[in-house]
Specification:
The complex is a heterodimer of chains A (about 160) and B (about 120). Chain A has about 160 residues and is mainly alpha-helical. In chain A, about 75% of the residues lie in helices and about 0% in strands. The longest helix of chain A is centred in the middle third of the chain and has 37 residues. Classes of the chains: A mainly alpha (about 160), B mainly alpha (about 120).
Chain lengths: ~160, ~120
Amino acid sequence: MKKPTWILIGGLALGGISGMGAYWFQIRHTAYRNAPEQFPELKWLQDEFKVSPEALQRINALHEEQVAQCEEICREADVVNRELQSLLATSHEVTPEIQAKLDEANRIRTECQTKLLRYLFRVSRELPEGQAGRYLTWAQSNVFCTPSLNRHHGDPFAHHP
Amino acid sequence: MKTGKPTSTDDPGGDGLDKLLSTWRVEDGLPTGFRAGVWRRIHEREHSVAWVESLRTYWIAVADWLARPAMATGYLAVLLVVGALAGWAQAERDQVQQKVVLSARYLQSVNPYQVEIRELP
């Protein structure tokens, strides 16, 4: 092949290699991509809210406890929902039994939200100054807002200074 | 096409065959659109040749351009920068997407009632 052909092909190859290099250079700072921890989302939390390694260990323990509680709540809620569904399958009005199941489902939900709030406050106390408020604003706006008003595109922290 | 078929009553001896053949004329014209089809194919062939020819002309111009060291260096530098910018932009997009996925996963792991998952960009 002639020299210009080599230059043309070489230029395209060079562009591809430089693209891959820039991609790798930029992405390697995102450590949570290949986080080996049990909870990779905590590695993200650490990066996003500048959590120290010591604080991350404490948050990890809190998180483990909260996840276990969530699993228990899920089981309870599942049982109540099944019972509610079987009641609804045989009724076309809100009977006292259905009302009682709804109350029970709401009690579980309230208990869950209380535990969640306690967890969020405990985690926020482990975060550096300035990050705690940011964390609570973000978490609470996601957890307690109406889902339809809770749509963000792109960077989830774009609206939280 | 009209053909005059000889019969035994017209010419029992078969001597009139030559005469009959000499009067045999093809009366049908060319198929509809035959001429147009021929011209179209000629134009297509010419267009195809012209396209290849123009491509060759362009390549010669590019090859001349790349043969100059300054131009070749500029070409390589531009592709180097364009490639790096494209890679960097793609990494940025991937990071934002990963952030959204992990933040949603974090909330879902601590809140069983978290049904809303942020849409990916």
